[in-house]
Amino acid sequence: MKRKRILFSIAAVLIMASAGIYFYYGFLFKEARNIAAESPDFSITAGKLLEEYNADPKKADALYLNKTIAITGTVTKETDSVITLENTVFCLFTRKIKEKKLDHKVTVKGKCIGYDELFQEVKLDQCILN
Fold it and tell me: Which parts of the chain span the membrane according to its record (predicted)?
């Protein structure tokens, strides 16, 4: 009888461990997206994107949030890894930007992470210059 209890306990522990591993790798752990390899879901100007967010933030989020988008606009601010297009779109790059682009028209591809009401900017991350 004692032997059956021990075998049952071991089987229960193995089943629980297997379920935990399956849950972790199946649902929680996901590899990062490769935005550079993805084609953009939308191509839009910086001004038009801000207009859509100002008009209806929920509708704009439904369209753009977590999507890969290409945004065209003039660079108004820049640092080592951030470019701001037309003072309305904040683009965070994964690498340092080597070339200075201030006052140049560029197209940036990145993942839209939403609208920041405090700064009144649309935010993108994992950006690359097209």
Answer: 6-25
Both structure tokens of 116: 């920041």
Using CA atoms, how far apart are residues 103 and 49, in angstroms rounded to an integer?
Answer: 19
Distance CA 71, CA 130 (A): 10
Cα dihedral 111→113→114→116 (10° resolution):
-120
* Digitized pLDDT (tens) for each residue of the chain, 130 residues in all: 788 888 788 888 888 877 777 777 666 666 677 888 899 999 999 999 999 999 999 999 999 999 999 999 999 999 989 999 999 999 999 889 888 889 999 999 999 999 998 999 999 999 999 8
Could you tell me the two tokens for 106? 């560029």
pTM above 0.85, yes or no: no
